Amino acid sequence: MIISTTPSLEGHPIREYLGIATGEVIVGANIFRDLFAGIRDIVGGRAGAYESALRSAREQAYLELEEDARRMGADAVVGVDLDYEVVGQGGSMLMVSASGTAVRL
Asked: pLDDT tens-digit profile of 64-75?
């Protein structure tokens, strides 16, 4: 499956637009607080464990986006956007969402 932030794919004409595909992941913010409480790998102002947790959430959102697009019969997703939001009472959770247009090439 081709996933792209661009609205089209050079050399791959879009035959059909199938709709919006999405993938969302919500992670409890306490995970990030726990990471910061015990962080030992801060080097050069970067928190490796925190970055790893964000990377994992982002990758999971992309996987869900791809699964949603496959259910629609797509072979690509174009115009992909990635968003991070703090949600829940008192900002207790972090939501990572990916969305784009599922297409048939």
From this structure: 999 999 999 999
